[in-house]
Specification:
The chain is an alpha/beta fold and about 140 residues long. Helices cover about 55% and strands about 15% of the residues. A five-stranded parallel sheet has the order 3-2-1-4-5. The model has no long low-confidence stretch (mean pLDDT about 90).
């Protein structure tokens, strides 16, 4: 099952040993994310470390472990789907690359807590709880 994972899920998995981390590390799903997710995660590194009460070294180690299970997609691999994604995602233009990546990979689900994706035509959202039930 191909699943596109949103940054908010990865950040949740970084902050604590949560259900999100369990799902990611299970290896049961093919997880993908646009490569810019790393920029977003690094932008919030200090906040994540403080909230998780971990050092930068531990943060880097957990990032490495999580991204052994998440395939990062370069912009070139989903660029041709940007215009289609723009038609679908009208609520938050910064999320257009997620939709384009979802379309390019032909994912079954988008795993997110971002309500901007709710009710979008052609995008199936899945929750952490639903994924846990599939483990």
């Amino acid at each position: 099952m191909k699943i596109l994972i949103d940054t908010n899920i990865v950040i949740a998995a970084l902050i604590k040993n949560s259900s999100a981390r369990e799902v990611i590390l299970s290896g049961k799903f093919e997880l993908f994310s646009p490569e810019f997710v790393m920029e977003e995660i690094n932008k919030y590194k200090k906040h994540i470390c403080e909230k998780a009460d971990i050092s930068v070294d531990v943060f880097e180690m957990v990032v490495d472990i999580l991204f052994e299970k998440i395939t990062l997609m370069s912009k070139e691999k989903y660029d041709e789907f940007i215009e289609d994604a723009r038609e679908i995602m009208k609520r938050d233009i910064k999320d257009i690359p997620y939709v384009a990546c979802y379309l390019a990979i032909k994912c079954e689900y988008l795993w997110t807590n971002d309500l901007d994706f709710t009710g979008m035509k052609g995008i199936e959202i899945i929750s952490t709880r639903a994924l846990l039930n599939l483990l």
